[in-house]
Amino acid sequence: MATATGLLASMLSGMIGHELVFRNWEGKMIVQKAPGKRKTRPTRAMAVQNNKFKQGMVYGVRMNQDTDMKELYYRKRAPRQNVCSRALQDYLTAPEVTDINVSQYSGKPGDTIEIRAHDDFHVAYVQVDIWSAGGVLVERGDAVVQPSGLVWTYTAKAANPNLAGTKVTAYAMDIPNNEGTLSVTIDKAPETEKPVASEKSIPPTSVETGESQQRVAFGGQGHQSCMPAAYSRKMAADSNCAWCDIGREMQDLVFTGRTELAALN
């Protein structure tokens, strides 16, 4: 490839003798060897790609004629690239969905799903499908792009109580309507934390007396906080309990006095 400038460069354009190709690029003349004819028949994949390339050229010409789109593609062009070739590149390049975050989705309306998608030019919109484990479409809708332009958020609208086996599929579309998809399957529902028993939930301890069985709440502090309704002959002495500091003989006297007083009444 060779380049030249000047009057001659502005006058020459096209192919000469199937040997050389002249074209102008930003005031410069570029000379290249003419492409040769293919000697073998194209494969099916090559034919499909050639057809897509032709459609992309039509798309590039149309974008070059659109004032707004021409400006956008012009800003995103690479060195030695014009608006048509930049639009062609966008037409041939599909967007890609790189991640679907379902950690905040528990099957309830209002839960959110985050999608990361990117394109060589611009992601036009992202659509989300939620399928049940049985293959039934639970809901479908568009995600909302975040200020960063890299993350899209979808807010669930329908209830999905059977979360295990749910499949979430995200579709990213660009301006030429190329599509990129990604799916994730939720293996199981998130585990809920088990409530921790508090001290107040500890059942009271039963203490048997000579007359009846009475409940004495210890409150997790040993005998120091116990307030027995009646003294018991069977109560064991405990040096940590103010009530148990009374000697066993004193307890017997108190118990006997209460019994005699009850008999007089």
Observed structural traits:
single chain, 265 residues, alpha+beta, Immunoglobulin-like, 4-stranded antiparallel β-sheet
Which sheet architecture does the biggest sheet show?
4 strands, antiparallel
Quick check: average pLDDT? 77
Q: Roughly how many Å is the radius of gyration?
A: 42 Å
Give the spatial strand order of the biggest sheet: 1-4-3-2
Strand content: 25-35%
Poorly predicted runs are: 204-240
Class derived from helix and strand content? alpha+beta
Instruction: Give the number of helices.
Output: 5
State the order of secondary-structure elements, H for helix, E for strand: EHEEEHHHEEEEEEEEEEH
Report the principal-axis shape: elongated
Distance N to C terminus:
126 Å
* Overall helicity: 10-25%
Number of strands: 14
Question: How many discrete structural domains?
Answer: 3
Write a structural description.
This protein is α+β, with helices and mostly antiparallel strands and 265 residues long. The chain folds into three domains: 2-92, no CATH class; 96-185, Immunoglobulin-like; 199-264, no CATH class. It has five helices and 14 strands. Strands 1-4-3-2 form a four-stranded antiparallel sheet. Strands 5-6-10-9 form a four-stranded antiparallel sheet, with no helix packed on it. The protein has a four-stranded antiparallel sheet with strand order 8-7-11-12, with no helix packed on it. A hairpin with a 3-residue loop joins strand 2 (14-16) and strand 3. Helix 2 (44-65) crosses helix 4 (83-92). The longest helix is centred in the N-terminal third of the chain and has 22 residues, at 44-65. The chain is elongated. Residues 204-240 have low confidence and may be disordered.
